[in-house]
Records
---
Amino acid sequence: MREPIEPGFMVFVADGELGVGAVREVHAESRELVVNVENGGDFTLPAEAIRDVHEGKVILDIDHLPQAMRNALRHPHDAEYPDSVYAATDPRDGALKD
């Protein structure tokens, strides 16, 4: 059984990478959660968009994210790391940056 998701959990595109946001709300009845992506805003995600949950971390399943969120994941750390190319070290785990 996977750990229950709670507001405040950090959100990642891959385990071992930098966080890209945080869980703001959890709607158990609809099985959705609201995630705030750094530099991207809030997105409502279905349960299918979650690959794993452990130790207060939510790992996303990129293939099940809305296109608008995928676009936001191209820029989560622009202010801190302007020269980085991917939201994750391995581009298969994260969204390609512009």
---
Amino acid sequence: MERTFQKLVPTRDDSWVTVDVYGDGPGLLMVPGVMSDAGGWRHVARAMTAWPSVSILNRRGRTPSGPLGDDYSLRTEVDDLAAVLEQIGEPRAIFGWSYGGLIALLLASERPVGHVIAYEPVAPGFGAAALPSLRTADDLGDWDRSVEIVNRDVSGFSAEHVELLRSDPVAWATLRQLSEPLYAELRALSQADIPGSLGSHAGLVDLIIGEDNLDRAPYGTSFEQIRRRLPDADVHRLPGQGHLAHVDAPAALGRMLDLLVRS
């Protein structure tokens, strides 16, 4: 499936977001998380065959979408997602990854959503211990340091993993750019509350966890906080994968999402 067009959606605070659309007709709407953008999910979209279309939200703070804005919070993200639905129509399902998974579930706390699929949605407080160092890096515009912090102190990856990323100048430049809204996003997450109604207006909820993260901090333990709030959700394990399945195994993730199409 190839991208057919990109749509610009005005938001309620004079910013904007863009949506990359693959295929045609009501299908799957994807909401990426932090350190990710619509382009980073293109390989997953191209691997999928069971959905009539795949639309990928490029959240604010990512080119060519607009700025975060001075009053940025998770409320901003939920309102942006609602604005996208008003513009493109109701999809058959909303898929969110990590921070995007929480955004999708929060939307489904407030309005009917037919089907929510969330890959390792993070809970409020995730990454909060790194906020002081991220704030310093943000104040200095030191995006190299921001990338190091999110990989080492938030995600728990090794120093060798970071150096491998740094060895690819193009990939590292992309990560630097994606880290610019990172401090504001994790600060917003630290200030958020999970409502008792989380996901309550979703007709169906499917949760996905990478098998490598089962019962492991930080992603598996954060996932478990969300899972406990959603006792009726179906839980699926993606074999041999962790949090970055869209990078490491886009075809495998695409196949799993294809299997979650509901009539």
---
Amino acid sequence: MNLEYLQSFYITVKCNSISKAAKELHLTQPGVSMQLRNLEKELGAKLLNRSNKGVELTEEGKVVYDYADTLLSIQGNIERDLKNLQQEAPQLMIGSCKSVGEYALPCSIFTFKHVHKEVDIKFEASNSSEVIQKLKDHTINIGIIQFDPKDDDIITQSIISDELLLVGNCIDSPKEISIEELKELPLILREKNSGTRLLVEKALQEKGIDIEDLNIIYDLNSPGSIKSSLLAGKGFSFLPKLIIQQDLKGQCIQTVKIEDLSIPFEYYVASRKKYAFTKYEQMFVDFIISSKRGFC
């Protein structure tokens, strides 16, 4: 079976569009269509029904799609393992949400590297949604995220529990407010699609409040930048307890309790569903999960 044709079929189904698949595969639309026809001819079965709404799997196509998922995953694992053998040092490609990526995780990486000096570690910090996409794109193999995406292509393992707290500076911040009073506070939030933003939106929706009801003065894509804004008295924000513990001890900022609202969440290690960790990747994941606090 031609794996190139199988990949075109698999991506077409994932994209629900031949034209979108062609862009992802860097092929022409007629080229992808030809590969799909060749695959159907090779297997002696019609795999797709095409319409203006996209593509729909036939019964035969459903069978082939399930096998394609497995076969292409195995192909990726073979290529990865061969590449690792050809490299002088084993590699870890890690992506993390910024809440831990800018604070706790670098310490854990340093500790792991100190013990395993032979490992080459490549690390990127971005928001949770971007980490998930990088896993799917095979840009990274290990992700640390703030929420479980409930995605069929991604599996997760819980690391540690945390909670989002509303915080402001220590000079003029109230100690407790109602949810209605929250609507009036000048808020600085993480960017859209970040894990923190999604957790806040979900918690407020459960209380019947839309994010648009809030007084959001601006968004920032860095927890560090948000903390700097709070210290300067620019507003209030929701931040993970994990990254503000030292600031609270130093009385640089203070929490603001919101009546009848709490936002607990978990940090997770995430990976592609059918991806098999290398020896060192599994060692790093075990190291993170087995730690009492999850991170340094």
